[in-house]
C-alpha cells in the first residue's frame, strides 16, 4: 500500500469514527441519560453541563430552517458540502491535511443524519464560566468540524512550504519503491 493511499484510508477511518462518536454521544445523552427535552440539563462540572437543545440552523444557528422546504434545503446544502470535502480529502496526499478534512467530514455526516431524521441537530455540550458562555451549546460533530477547520487553516497559513517538500519526498519514495520492485 502506498503512503498516500494509507493516509487516505486513515482519513476515511477517522471520519467514520467521528461520525460514530457523535451519534453515540447524542444517543447516550438523549436516551440513556434522558436529557431529551429543551431545557433538560445535568451539571457535570462547575463549568460544563449537558443541556439539550435543538439547532434548526447551521453554524452558529445561521440559515435557520423554519419550514420543511428549508429543512430539506439545508440537508441538500450540507450534503453537497460534505461531498466536496470528501472529494477534497481523497485528492490530498499528506496526512495532516487529510486528518483536518476527515474531522470536518465526520462531523458534517453526524449533523446531516440528525437533520435528515429529526429535522434539527441535537446539541448538548454547554461549556460556561458562571453565566458567561463563550460558545453556543454544541455536540461532538460541531467540535470536530471546528478543530478540522482550524487544522486546515493553520496548515494553509503556516505549513505550506514544508508540505510541498513532504509531497516531493512521498513521490520520490513511491518512485524508489516502484524501481525496487522491477
Number of separate strands: 3
Quaternary structure type: single chain
Mean pLDDT: 89
Separation, N- and C-terminal Cα atoms: 16 Å
Broad shape: elongated
Structural class by sheet pairing and helices = mainly alpha
Major sheet size, sense and barrel closure: 3 strands, antiparallel
- Secondary structure: helix percent: 55-70%
* Residue fraction in strands: 5-15%
Sequence stretches where pLDDT stays below 50 over 5 or more residues:
none
Number of helices: 5
Radius of gyration: 19 Å
Give me the side-by-side strand order of the main sheet.
Answer: 1-2-3
Written as H for each helix and E for each strand, in order along the chain, the element string is HEEHHEHH
Descriptive account of the structure:
It is built from 5 helices and 3 strands; from the N terminus they run αββααβαα. It has helices spanning 3-32, 68-91, 95-118, 140-158, 160-181, and strands at 41-45, 48-55, 121-127. Strand 1 and strand 2 (48-55) form a beta hairpin. The two termini are 16 Å apart.
Structure summary:
With 182 residues, the protein is mainly alpha-helical.
Provide key terms for this protein.
182 residues; mainly alpha; three-stranded antiparallel sheet; 5 helices; 65% helix
List the helices and strands and how they pair.
Elements: H1 3-32, E1 41-45, E2 48-55, H2 68-91, H3 95-118, E3 121-127, H4 140-158, H5 160-181
Antiparallel strand pairs: 1-2, 2-3
Amino acid at each position: 500500500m502506498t503512503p498516500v493511499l494509507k493516509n487516505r484510508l486513515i482519513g476515511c477511518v477517522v471520519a467514520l469514527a467521528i461520525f460514530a462518536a457523535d451519534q453515540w454521544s447524542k444517543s447516550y445523552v438523549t436516551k440513556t441519560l434522558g436529557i431529551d427535552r429543551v431545557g433538560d440539563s445535568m451539571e457535570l462540572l462547575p463549568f460544563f453541563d449537558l443541556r439539550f437543545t435543538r439547532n434548526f440552523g447551521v453554524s452558529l444557528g445561521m440559515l435557520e430552517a423554519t419550514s420543511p422546504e428549508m429543512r430539506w434545503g439545508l440537508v441538500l446544502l450540507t450534503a453537497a458540502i460534505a461531498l466536496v470535502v470528501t472529494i477534497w480529502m481523497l485528492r490530498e496526499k499528506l496526512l495532516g491535511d487529510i486528518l483536518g478534512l476527515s474531522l470536518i467530514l465526520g462531523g458534517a455526516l453526524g449533523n446531516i443524519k440528525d437533520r435528515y431524521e429529526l429535522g434539527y441537530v441535537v446539541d448538548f455540550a454547554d461549556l460556561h464560566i458562571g453565566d458567561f458562555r463563550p460558545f453556543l451549546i454544541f455536540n461532538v460533530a460541531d467540535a470536530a468540524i471546528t478543530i478540522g477547520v482550524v487544522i486546515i487553516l493553520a496548515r494553509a497559513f503556516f505549513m505550506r512550504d514544508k508540505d510541498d517538500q513532504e509531497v516531493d519526498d512521498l513521490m520520490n519514495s513511491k518512485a524508489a519503491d516502484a524501481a525496487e520492485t522491477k
